[in-house]
Backbone:
């Protein structure tokens, strides 16, 4: 069994929890309060910068030129999407540049960003990819699930269409294929570390959305 299928199956219950969590249920229904989506997109913009950095580190560790191109391009896309949030979603949902500049990373965003960067720098290339994979894959699956049941009209249609679209899914399939190729020739110890990284990142995906739903902030200042 490929690593990706084994890892997905092992975390299927956690994925289902993510798919059906209040944030995503309200997003599909079009009833998500604007305040919660504002919190989400601000934190997502912060997160995408760190995600892009982690992808760039993965590109530097790639074992072939295809990997360098694949993850350098993914890093570029992450930053382009982050800038698009400023240009489109921020304006649409009433978030100013000053709002973003003054908003610190939430505890969940800080944890997730720090985890990906630390893993990308400190762990072998296959483990770094295993940590990065859930963000790609879970967004693709959640996007298509929400797309299939989204109420109309829906103020979040642009977000839904982005992650349900074929361009994004093609990129996700490419990351899965590269991760599986590396896992197939990795040692049992590295494969074990890959599974740990995949599960931890999946847990952090849940924490990120749950934080947006609960308007997560630092309990002390």
Residues:
């Amino acid at each position: 069994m490929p690593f990706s299928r084994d890892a997905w199956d092992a975390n299927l219950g956690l994925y289902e929890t993510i798919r059906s969590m209040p944030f995503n249920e309200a997003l599909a229904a079009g009833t998500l309060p604007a305040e919660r989506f504002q919190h989400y997109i601000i934190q997502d913009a912060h997160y995408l910068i760190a995600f892009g950095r982690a992808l760039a580190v993965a590109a530097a560790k790639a074992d072939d030129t295809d990997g360098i191109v694949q993850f350098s391009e993914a890093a570029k896309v992450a930053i382009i999407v982050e800038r698009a949030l400023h240009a489109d979603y921020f304006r649409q949902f009433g978030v100013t540049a000053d709002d973003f500049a003054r908003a610190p990373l939430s505890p969940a965003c800080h944890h997730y960003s720090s985890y990906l960067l630390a893993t990308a720098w400190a762990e072998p290339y296959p483990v770094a990819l295993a940590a990065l994979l859930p963000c790609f894959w879970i967004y693709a699956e959640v996007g298509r699930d929400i797309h299939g049941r989204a109420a109309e009209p829906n103020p979040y249609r642009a977000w839904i269409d982005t992650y349900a679209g074929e361009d994004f899914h093609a990129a996700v399939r490419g990351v899965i294929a590269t991760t599986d190729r590396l896992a197939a020739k990795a040692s049992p110890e590295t494969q074990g570390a890959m599974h740990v990284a995949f599960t931890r990142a999946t847990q952090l995906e849940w924490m990120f959305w749950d934080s947006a739903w609960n308007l997560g902030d630092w309990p002390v200042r």
